[in-house]
Design goal:
The protein is globular. It has no helices and 31 strands. A hairpin with a 2-residue loop joins strand 13 and strand 14. By secondary structure, the protein is an all-beta fold.
């Protein structure tokens, strides 16, 4: 088997959402929030980054902790750091901007900044961007930063509203952009301009919610954001970094909503929730980074990526979520694959949504999880609670002579795992109760070529779905 990479592209123990990819030198660096496995809220861990050579997006390297909550002088033992972005400034230094909320007052919500001589730090606290005078209209949240020809723009905002913070729903205007003074990277030069509203003519239900991100592609500026629908990343284009921006469409939905039979969260291809990410351009190709939900809640999210195409007219067609992501081609149908790389996951009924503030009950819902506590080693992520009618989908595999398929499972299940390509049944694997990880196999009847695979369990009990393999 040749070297391959999957979604999520980082190890199973790593929970990085809000991924912003940037090329600095000859490497791609991903900056994001850092969730805790089985955390009680968003972004509980310190910032880390991972990087890969620009000519090999299959070779990701851990760069370590780059910024700690405790290094922010306003931390004082409480608060979270949300959705950072990093830029190489005109002065040759690297600046990381992050949203920080150590308290429940409106003034405690802020965008702060740290600076370093390297994209991997160590970063040193630099200061706060004074956005407070405008925070009733544009909340200082989810910052993105863009630098061009010695000028610097900061994007931010959220459609959230909190009466306790003195912010009303009627006053929230959506996303904003301000120009920063490149001399100090903190001073706001003029009042904020709206990037996109929370809704209205020309944007409909895809109004701005949060997750600002900016890239320039050819002669257009692409503003990427998470919409008020909540499960998708959309884009708008403009002729200048500060707009005006025109809505373009959906780039990716983590539940494939809007593609084929996936019409809403009840028919989604995945359990949905929030998502956040940015566009990467490298080696003449474009990718959208986004995150998925795990562990029955929205506090343990993982970064994924898909290749996208920019049409001649500048438009981007919505792409589906896949298991092969950055691989550049379908996965080889040979050898063993962890079940955690399933890009589709659903139960036989219910609303496929993990976006609430509390952990969802297991019920009939399968979910990605791991054993033990949060850690930075020994990945063992798998699909748990895989019961009657549960389905896991993998896209895509390239078949070339495989005639046997196996699943590794553990649990009290007693039934059949049916394998299809979405149309035809390719195998039926008998499953028996087992107390330890056990492999069950069946003959695989599949023609050579590229196909998706869907594994659906029918029977009594539930199982932990660990891996699949081909021979």
């Amino acid at each position: 088997m040749s070297k391959q990479i999957f979604n999520p592209y980082l190890p199973g123990f790593e929970y990085i959402p809000d991924g912003e990819p940037h090329v600095f030198g000859d490497r791609v660096y991903v900056y994001g929030s850092h969730d805790k496995f089985n955390g009680k809220t968003f972004c509980m861990n310190d910032y880390v980054t991972w990087s890969a050579p620009v000519n090999d997006l299959k070779d990701w390297r851990y760069e370590g902790v780059i910024w700690k909550k405790a290094d922010d002088p306003n931390y004082k033992g409480r608060g979270s750091m949300y959705a950072p972005d990093v830029c190489l400034a005109p002065d040759g230094k690297y600046y990381i901007y992050y949203a920080f909320a150590p308290g429940i007052t409106r003034k405690s919500w802020a965008i702060r900044c740290a600076v370093a001589d390297s994209p991997t730090g160590p970063f040193k606290y630099h200061g706060e961007v004074n956005l407070y005078p405008y925070s009733k209209q544009f909340l200082p949240f989810d910052p993105a930063v863009y630098v061009e020809d010695g000028r610097v723009w900061l994007y931010y905002g959220s459609a959230m509203f909190f009466p306790v913070l003195g912010v009303s729903k009627k006053k929230i205007m959506g996303g904003a952009v301000v120009e920063l003074d490149p001399k100090d990277m903190l001073t706001v030069m003029g009042k904020p301009k709206q990037t996109l509203p929370v809704g209205g003519e020309g944007i409909g239900k895809h109004g701005f919610f949060e997750a600002s991100s900016m890239r320039k592609i050819k002669d257009k500026y692409y503003f990427v954001y998470s919409s008020t629908i909540g499960h998708e990343l959309c884009y708008a284009t403009g002729d200048k970094p500060d707009g005006p921006f025109k809505f373009g469409g959906t780039i990716v939905s983590i539940g494939d909503i809007g593609l084929g039979k996936h019409k809403d969260v009840k028919t989604a291809s995945n359990y949905t929730g929030n998502t956040h990410g940015g566009i990467l351009e490298v080696n003449g190709k474009y990718y959208i980074f986004y995150h998925r939900q795990t562990n029955l809640h929205c506090y343990s999210r993982q970064d994924c990526a898909e290749e996208i195409e920019i049409a001649a007219d500048g438009s981007i067609k919505q792409v589906e979520v896949t298991s092969c992501g950055l691989n550049g081609k379908p996965l080889e149908a040979i050898g063993k694959y962890e079940a955690r790389i399933a890009c589709n996951l659903w139960s036989k009924k219910g609303c496929r949504f993990y976006g609430g503030l509390f952990k969802s009950p297991k019920g009939c819902h399968p979910y990605f999880t791991q054993s033990g506590a949060d850690r930075e080693n020994n990945p063992d992520q798998y699909i748990s609670n895989f019961g009657d009618g549960a389905t896991a989908g993998f896209k895509y595999f390239e078949f070339d002579g495989a005639n046997k398929i196996s699943v590794e499972v553990c649990g009290k299940a007693n039934g059949v795992m049916t394998v299809t390509d979405g149309v035809d049944t390719l195998a039926e694997i008998d499953i028996k109760p087992c107390k330890t990880n056990t492999v069950y196999s069946a003959k695989l009847n599949v023609e050579n070529g590229v196909k998706p695979l869907y594994f659906t369990y029918r029977g009594k009990g539930k199982l932990d779905f660990k891996s699949i393999s081909f021979e």
